[in-house]
């Protein structure tokens, strides 16, 4: 059952568009499987790329006896590793969503800072607001919590805005071409009282669940802005609701998600909510195609890929 | 009547806060004049800094017999030069509004591109929109029309967003550290059909009045975004209204301004309007104070200042 160099390895992708965009890859045959049911060629699939935005039936992965790798198109992978059959590696998408998610983080930050939600509400009533002094992003102190690829892409975009940026990650480490150093999470209590904008870009894990809770929020000064572009459960919604009168929030992700129409978060004027749109933009497809080419090329040559997040 | 080195030159500033923030300047006495009426020390004022956001009575300037310089806190100066007495020079504020205005240009661009106005409207009804692919700013072609200090500050902020930026100004000239070259206005007809985002940052003049009119708008492709952070009259409102079904607009300035509550522009879902908030943010004051110190220092030493826009 071991693939010989003459037998192409079978890779499933979610639809025919991916087959066409990725194009021919030496030693690989691309087949289409949307994972709504067990695919026709389930017995041959060695690498599976599940659908990106559409839901799919995870149990189909257990019906692929030759499956060795699930290559996600998402950055997040919470809960999937545990659901995979033994011997199947899981890789996430790295460098594919940075652009789009970091761009949204800046969009939410700048829109909140410069009053865009109020302009939209005023537009509905034809109200030209009286002149007043708005908060700029310039001169603000920004903390990026979570300094992986997305955090770094946020920092790179923030740099020309005349802000002070502090990067915080699980462990302290030297900086890069964007920030002079990366601070450890234990520096947060000292940073937060002087933080004007907190941008959250950590992965969801047991260590980060409800990280943005009462302690963090209470430590922020009045008027600070919290921007969450990671996962809803990284924040404690009940704690957010206790601080909406004092802090401002821009949330691309919520808990629960989707947010039910009668949820009190919708009614808070200081809360801007986008419906988990960090990833799916026109920036995704060309970057995902380049990424899959690199990953599948590596798999064809070496039998494995970079960015494995779990194997068991 | 010529000032001797021993007699301090009298400079009026709009309120006592400016006196305090600017602090002592050798050879200068700062006095307060809000120009709502002829100031007490009108006979002595040699340099006048008119109020920034508040309106004032321009005729008071003609009641200052020793007046030699009006130093504005605005970048724009349309119409004022003609109203000044003979022998009075006019200087605008350069480098004071770049930060704030460029930041707003990015806020309006990113908010429009990533759907923020719709998120705000959906928030009012508690609607979590279904997943869809949004337009990113990344990979878009952006034209900055008007490449003075504000245009350059816009370009600098755009650079990390993975866009192609073309700068266009009245005359072609070599580039800078941000763009490889500055194109002349006559290159617009070739550029516009491939432009996804057109950011307008030209000063208002007879040459630029209604520059964003039928010809420019018709040349843009469907779905393009036009961002105006200059002056309302740079665009032809009637032409905008003819293209709101096909193009998108984000306007910090309008014509007329303020926009009356029954104006049809308010009712266009593809038009985001901010009430001329490019300049007045918290970024303004510290930059304006540094600028006035430099300008007044230069005046004390040399009897004139950089950034004279008119003298007659």
Summary?
By secondary structure, chain A is of the alpha/beta class. The first copy, chain A, has helices spanning 16-22, 80-83, 98-113, 116-124, 149-158, 188-191, 214-219, 237-243, 284-302, and strands spanning 9-13, 28-32, 45-48, 69-71, 89-91, 141-145, 164-169, 173-174, 181-184, 197-200, 225-228, 248-251, 271-273, 308-311. Helices cover 26% and strands 18% of the residues of chain A.
Can you walk me through this structure?
The structure is a homodimer of 312-residue chains. Chain A is an alpha/beta fold. Chain A is 26% helix and 18% strand. The first copy, chain A, has helices at residues 16-22, 80-83, 98-113, 116-124, 149-158, 188-191, 214-219, 237-243, 284-302, and strands at residues 9-13, 28-32, 45-48, 69-71, 89-91, 141-145, 164-169, 173-174, 181-184, 197-200, 225-228, 248-251, 271-273, 308-311. In chain A, strands 8-9-7-6-10-11-12-13 form an eight-stranded mixed sheet, covered by helices on one side. In chain A, strands 2-1-3-4-5-14 form a six-stranded mixed sheet. The radius of gyration of chain A is 22 Å and the shape is elongated.
What characteristics describe this protein?
homodimer, 312 residues, alpha/beta, elongated
Record the SSE blueprint.
The structure is a homodimer of 312-residue chains.
Chain A: E1 9-13, H1 16-22, E2 28-32, E3 45-48, E4 69-71, H2 80-83, E5 89-91, H3 98-113, H4 116-124, E6 141-145, H5 149-158, E7 164-169, E8 173-174, E9 181-184, H6 188-191, E10 197-200, H7 214-219, E11 225-228, H8 237-243, E12 248-251, E13 271-273, H9 284-302, E14 308-311
Parallel strand pairs in A: 1-2, 1-3, 3-4, 4-5, 6-7, 6-10, 7-9, 10-11, 11-12, 12-13
Antiparallel strand pairs in A: 5-14, 8-9
Helix pairs in contact in A: 3-5
């Amino acid at each position: 059952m071991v693939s010989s160099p003459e037998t192409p390895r079978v890779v499933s992708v979610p639809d025919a568009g991916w087959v066409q965009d990725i194009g021919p890859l030496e030693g690989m045959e691309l087949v289409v499987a949307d994972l709504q049911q067990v695919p026709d060629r389930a017995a041959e699939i060695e690498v599976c790329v599940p659908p990106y935005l559409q839901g799919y039936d995870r149990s189909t992965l257990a019906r692929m006896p030759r499956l060795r790798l699930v290559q996600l198109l998402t950055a997040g992978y919470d809960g999937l590793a545990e659901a995979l059959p033994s011997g199947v590696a899981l890789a996430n998408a790295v460098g594919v969503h940075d652009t789009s998610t970091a761009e949204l983080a800046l969009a939410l930050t700048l829109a909140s800072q410069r009053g865009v939600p109020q302009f939209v509400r005023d537009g509905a009533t034809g109200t030209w607001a009286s002149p007043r002094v708005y908060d700029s992003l310039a001169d603000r102190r920004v903390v990026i919590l979570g300094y992986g690829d997305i955090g770094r892409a946020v920092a790179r975009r923030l740099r020309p805005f005349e802000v002070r940026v502090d990067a915080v990650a699980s462990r302290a480490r030297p900086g890069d071409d964007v920030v002079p150093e990366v601070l450890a999470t234990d520096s947060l209590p000292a940073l937060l009282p002087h933080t004007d904008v907190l941008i959250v870009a950590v992965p969801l894990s047991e260590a980060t669940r409800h990280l943005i809770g009462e302690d963090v929020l209470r430590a922020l000064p009045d008027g600070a802005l919290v921007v969450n572009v990671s996962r809803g459960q990284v924040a404690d919604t009940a704690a957010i609701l206790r601080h909406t009168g004092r802090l401002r929030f821009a949330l691309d992700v919520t808990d629960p998600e989707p947010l039910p129409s009668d949820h009190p978060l919708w009614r808070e004027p200081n809360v801007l909510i986008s419906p988990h749109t960090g990833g799916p933009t026109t920036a995704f497809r060309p970057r995902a195609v380049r990424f899959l080419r690199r990953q599948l090329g590596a798999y064809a040559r070496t039998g494995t890929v970079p960015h494995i997040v779990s194997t068991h």
